[in-house]
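queue> pop job 88
queue> type: inverse folding (structure -> sequence)
queue> payload:
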């Protein structure tokens, strides 16, 4: 199995866990004299089995990410960390730009005047650069995911 396939399965497992959680919560309490629509014990068993599979799959994914070389300097796990940090920085600067661009109308000279304390043009350029770095890194990661076999 390729790493990319394992990642897709992991996402499916995580969605299924959430669905089982919701079903379990819906059936754990009923009005006195009523029966739950599903047996909570059966749902709990299915949830436990799925979580065991998910745990094993995540271990294999993590091992593969750690032992797979991304380039001559870093592992795939390192590249994933870099992508995450670039994404966080991009998000913060995008939110900063939103705040800087909020226009507060003044109706008289006595109202408080607000000014932007950053260079919006430079900040936007930084966001654009981060976005490009993120896209390029993400493309390389996705390509490697489809070329890499999942390690046991």
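queue> result:
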């Amino acid at each position: 199995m390729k790493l990319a396939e394992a990642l897709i399965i992991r996402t499916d497992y995580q969605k299924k866990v959430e669905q089982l959680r919701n079903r379990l919560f819906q059936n754990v309490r009923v009005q006195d004299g009523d029966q739950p629509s599903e047996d909570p014990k059966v749902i709990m068993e299915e949830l436990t089995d799925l979580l065991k599979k998910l745990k094993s799959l995540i271990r294999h994914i993590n091992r593969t990410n750690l032992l797979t070389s991304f380039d001559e300097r870093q592992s795939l796990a390192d590249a994933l960390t870099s992508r995450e940090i670039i994404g966080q920085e991009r998000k913060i600067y995008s939110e900063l730009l939103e705040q800087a661009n909020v226009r507060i109308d003044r109706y008289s000279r006595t109202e408080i005047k607000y000014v932007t304390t950053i260079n919006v043009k430079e900040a936007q350029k930084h966001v654009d650069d981060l976005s490009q770095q993120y896209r390029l890194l993400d493309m390389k990661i996705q390509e490697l995911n489809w070329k890499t076999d999942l390690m046991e």
